[in-house]
Amino acid sequence: MADKPTVYVTRRIPDAGIERLEEDYDVHVWEEKTPPSKEHIIETLADLEAEGLLCLLSDDIDGEVMDASPNLEVISTFSVGYDHIDMDAAAERDIPVGHTPGVLSETTADFAWSLLMTTARRTVEGQDYVLDGEWETWGPTLLTGPDVHHATLGVIGMGNIGTEVARRAAGFDMDVLYSDVEPNEDAEAELAEAGVDAQFVDQDELLAESDFVSLHVPLMDATHHLISESEFKQMKEEAILINTSRGPVVDPDALYTALEKDWITRAGLDVTEPEPLPADHELTDHVPEKLVVTPHIASASIQTRNKMARMAADNLAAGLAGNSLPNSAHQD
Ligand SMILES: NC(=O)C1=CN([C@@H]2O[C@H](COP(=O)(O)OP(=O)(O)OC[C@H]3O[C@@H](n4cnc5c(N)ncnc54)[C@H](O)[C@@H]3O)[C@@H](O)[C@H]2O)C=CC1
Ligand SMILES: O=CC(=O)O
Prior knowledge:
Bound molecules: 1,4-dihydronicotinamide adenine dinucleotide, the ligand O=CC(=O)O
EC number: 1.1.1.26
Largest sheet: 7 strands, parallel
Organism: Halodesulfurarchaeum formicicum
Radius of gyration: 22 Å
CATH class of the largest domain: Alpha Beta
Protein name: D-glycerate dehydrogenase
CATH architecture of the largest domain: 3-Layer(aba) Sandwich
CATH topology of the largest domain: Rossmann fold
Helix content: 25-40%
Family: Belongs to the D-isomer specific 2-hydroxyacid dehydrogenase family.
Strand content: 5-15%
Order of helices and strands: EHEHEHEHEHHEHEHEHEHEHEEH
Shape: globular
Strand order of the largest sheet: 8-7-6-9-10-11-12
Structural class: alpha/beta
InterPro entries: D-isomer_2-hydroxyacid_DH (IPR050223), D-isomer_2_OHA_DH_cat_dom (IPR006139), D-isomer_DH_CS (IPR029753), D-isomer_DH_NAD-bd (IPR006140), NAD(P)-bd_dom_sf (IPR036291)
């Protein structure tokens, strides 16, 4: 019997994915908590002469990595974002790249809403207040924040996740604005059925009019530091920025200044630049009064991570069988 194809998995993903791979492949998993270095990925792919690579968003996958194994046939990432993969290098080498769209959209949208509610209604500050022993009585103006209901939500990037974020605004009777590279009529129709009248506007208008601005664009050249000093200055002083997209979509120095100078009221970040954010990074000076930060966990529900693992394994299996990937990242 021919040897099974070899697959390198750069971190232990949920069993749903590993078990699927183990049915057909010789599976090697990096078992540490932190990612393997790029050098280690290269050495391992070369030693294994691996046919498949299943990677995470914390791995830097460029042409050098792709050339490490003479047999590499497919790359599958356990994420929807693929900004960590050099897509031009993959296209040049005819290596298909799989990712995990759709299965995490609702879970990620739920989390964006959790950051929105937490920053607006000052949940973290409230808990600190209790734990610090400061809670002596009910206070008429204690930890007041803006209403979420009937406010204006601005969604930048009305794709899968942006649509789910907008859909959830129905329960809060919010006005919804969105900007994108072009109007998304399918999303508008879907949202209208859910009772949300999403208005396409240019980004300048969205920034000027929104009480909450939530970012849902992929990271690429056009979206690098999409929100920087001039954008913060366009926003309302009462505005709250939520970022669950990628850290570098927001210029961290500009965010620091915007919070310092009260150009905006607060921000909630699940993604940061740099990532991980060191605990002594200057941005943490603003925690918790003006900033809430979480460690890139927006898709981290048990069910969704299982679905992502299965989808990433299915993409890899399709590529190794010489079939087109069920969820292929666009090579553009
Ligand atoms: N924090 C987390 O754990 C998670 C983060 N993400 C991030 O969210 C991103 C979006 O995911 P999906 O909604 O599934 O992607 P998607 O591809 O469905 O939607 C992205 C939307 O952004 C739009 N867009 C692209 N360039 C733009 C620009 N310059 N200005 C305005 N809009 C622009 C696209 O036209 C599209 O409508 C991912 O690429 C990933 O980086 C995704 C899942 C979880
Ligand atoms: O950030 C998470 C992803 O799936 O992309």
